[in-house]
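Researcher: I'd like a structural prediction for the single chain below. Treat it as a standalone chain; there are no partners to consider.
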Amino acid sequence: MEKYKDHSGRRKDVAPLQEAFDELLRAYRLKDKFDERLLIQAWPEMMGNTVASRTTSVYIKEKKLFVQVTSGAIKKELSMNKTKVVEIVEQKFGKGVITDIVFL
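Model: Treating it as a single chain, here is the predicted structure.
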């Protein structure tokens, strides 16, 4: 017989920190923005030094990734391999973070 009841509404089970953090982001509807920031920071790592050194700006607006590149040849190469770039992003961050990529 339980003497005191817990009315706090808090979960009793222990969740790993990452799960708890993800749950918090979802609860405050910040998950998309957080994932977008991570994607922008990871751009050089995902694309390598050659592309990263010629990228001047990376931002996301309305689920579209905009990438400004200083080299015409690299811009053309990236445009031709757009689906491959989307696959790389989806492998690292999952589907839905971005829906399209625009190379400027």
